[in-house]
Here is the input.
Amino acid sequence: MALAGFVRVANMSAEADPDAALMLRVKQGDTAAFAELVDKYKQPVMNVAYRMLHDATEAEDLAQVVFVQVFKSAQRYRVSSKFSTWLFTIARNLCLNEIRRRARHRVESMEAPHPEQEDQPLHQFEDKQTASPPERLLHGELEAKIEQAMAELPENQRLAIALCRQEELSYEEIAQVLRCSVSATKSLIHRGRETLKQKLKPYLQSGAWRGPE
Here is the structure.
């Protein structure tokens, strides 16, 4: 009876979450279902990875690794939470692993700098409407300042804000990804946003550029 109850709960969860239902099809070897999940979530995963790593190429590479891991984990998949929560937890772990790897090699990087790799152009994954050249320049400068300010936030605040921008995730689901309480999650997001507002105050005035710091 306990097993039957578990199956009923899993089925109910899958019915409530179409993405979980797709993942259960992947578990049965349905590659079309996997392609559908990749198509839906590749962009959001790349956006989160970019805001954590601030490197466009590494963000794309990490997104690929995320979905490789999703596919390899298909046989062990259980519907215990929303698919998006499970997916972004994988992305979180891989991002933090990469950040720690960078930290271990930071001294070597500082001793052997590569000037040609500095000031990497800002890479936007999100779709943008067509704008005139001056508007694109203005937006690019402001977006660069936003990304710079994001990069200076503590890891947990940065990740909380990045996840908050994903419409699929509620505060409760973000808390699951971050492995903390909902109140702590809201606090991280609030503190991060307040810090960003303070850092960006010199650059914002009715959407206009106000000059350097």
Remarks:
- The longest helix spans residues 31-53.
- The domain at 135-205 is CATH 1.10.10.10 (Arc Repressor Mutant, subunit A).
- The chain is about 70% helix and 0% strand.
